[in-house]
Amino acid sequence: MNAIPPIAPTGAGCADAPVLYERGQREVFCGLTGIVWLHRKIQDAFFLVVGSRTCAHLLQSAAGVMIFAEPRFATAIIEERDLAGLADANTELDRVVTRLIERRPDIKLLFLVGSCPSEVIKLDLFRAAERLSQAFAPTVKILSYSGSGIETTFTQGEDACLASLVPGMPEEAADAAPSLLVVGALAEVVEDQFVRLFAALGIDRVRFFPPRRSDDLPPVGPATRLLLAQPFLAETARLLEKRGATRLLAPFPLGVEGTIGWLGAAAKEFGVDEARFDAAIAPAAERARAALARAREKLAGTRIFFFPDSQLEIPLARFAARELGMRLVEVGTPYLHRPHLAAELALLPPGTMLSEGQDVDKQLDRCRAARPDLTVCGLGLANPLEAEGLATKWSIELLFTPVHGFEQAADLAELFARPLVRRSRLKV
Question: Is residue 194, in this structure, part of any structural domain at all?
């Protein structure tokens, strides 16, 4: 049986565990990387990075876009004339935006995305977005957010993007019935699976943010119950709560246990009885457990080290330890948001070493000394560590791959197993 689980488990886990705080050299992608999954999610939006050729190369490489593809992102290149002040950057930007909208009439929402170069020359993209939005209204709405590596890391790009959308969300009706708002970009197949599960629970007033179409922003207000699908949306959650939404305390829907706890938080809030909850989730949960059993055979007892990169590290560590039987050497995360991760921290094995922030040389020394079986890290560290004989998993792959929910639990486990299987096959 799968009775609705308590949000806080009996043991304290790592709820009050000491954390090693590190403030040194970082080795992470910038927030521009979030465009790679966001441009697929909001289907009538376009992301225009105001940056350098390096920004363009990063996005092209990260997305793996073929030359004949026409993605919903591009880079307005800041040239030497712009940096030297020989050209009016705002005039140039207006020209590029006008040409883009003329060429792509399907664009209904345009994001101007700040980068390190645009930050350095103090180009005010917020004011530019206001000016251009007025010029192209009502056909195209134009917003801005910062994906600069100076201000953001990796997944914070999604947080900044969604935060820029919150002011435009309609106010819910004064007499609105309670509704559920799932926050965080999910693959469409995962979103559809969750819709079916919520419907089976009798929770029909469910909306997802971001929506698939920019003109379908969900309303928000005091009757909105907020369920985070991603742990890195601190600013978005703050703004939604400021609008009156109530955040539900839950683990994140990674693996069977996390998905049951996540759905259970919504079920409790909406008064779903245990019998209905069990009947709704049991088939999918049992399939996922059976699939995970095969991965557990490969992974149980192996040691895993998480470098701070995506802010998914703590939920992933909980899944690896509790459902795959892996041993946690160190769990590093760029930012540890305790209120959002309270349910996850309580589920971590007691004594887990936690670190927040990064001093990459010190962390590399600890990793080398520990010699874990698997290291989860960014691309910049993976190849050097592989050359030193350590198996690695790119943390960015855990964002690009659908991993949430019951049906994807085995796929998530396979992402951990694959590097170890590959290494065993290469051994002579």
Answer: yes
Paired tokens of 14: 């790592």
Do 183 and 256 fall within a single domain? yes
Confidence (pLDDT) at 5: 67
Which of 252, 274, 296 terminates a domain? The answer is 274
- CA-nearest of 241, 240, 238, 266 to 251 is 266
Q: Would you say the C-alpha torsion 127, 132, 135, 139 has a positive or negative sign?
A: negative
3-class DSSP assignment, residue 197: helix
319, 254 Cβ separation under 8 angstroms: yes
Return averaged pLDDT per consecutive 10 residues of the chain, 428 residues in all.
Answer: 59 83 85 90 94 86 62 83 64 92 95 90 91 94 92 88 97 94 96 97 97 96 98 97 97 98 97 96 96 94 96 97 97 94 96 94 96 94 93 91 96 94 72
Maximum distance among all Cα pairs of the chain, rounded to whole angstroms: 70
Q: How many CB atoms lie within 10 A of CB 423?
A: 16
Task: Classify the C-alpha dihedral 65-68-71-77 as positive or negative.
Answer: positive
What is the model's pLDDT at position 2? Answer: 63
SS3 12: coil
State the virtual CA torsion across 376, 381, 385, 386 in degrees, nearest 10. 80
pLDDT of res. 66? 47
248: in domain: yes
> Number of structural domains, the chain?
3
**Residue type, position 175, single letter:** D
Domain boundary among 274, 302, 330: 274
Q: Which domain holds residue 101?
A: 31-152
Strand partners, 354: 19, 331
Report the amino acid identity of residue 304.
I
Residue 209 has what pLDDT? 98
On whether both 301 and 256 belong to a single domain, the answer is no
- State which amino acid sits at residue 235: E
- The verdict on 356 and 232 lying in the same domain is no
Task: Give the global pTM.
Answer: 0.93
Quote the CA–CA distance of 340 and 148 in Å, as a whole number. 24
Rounded distance between C-alpha atoms, residue 322 and residue 305, angstroms: 15
Q: Are residues 266 and 297 in the same domain?
A: no
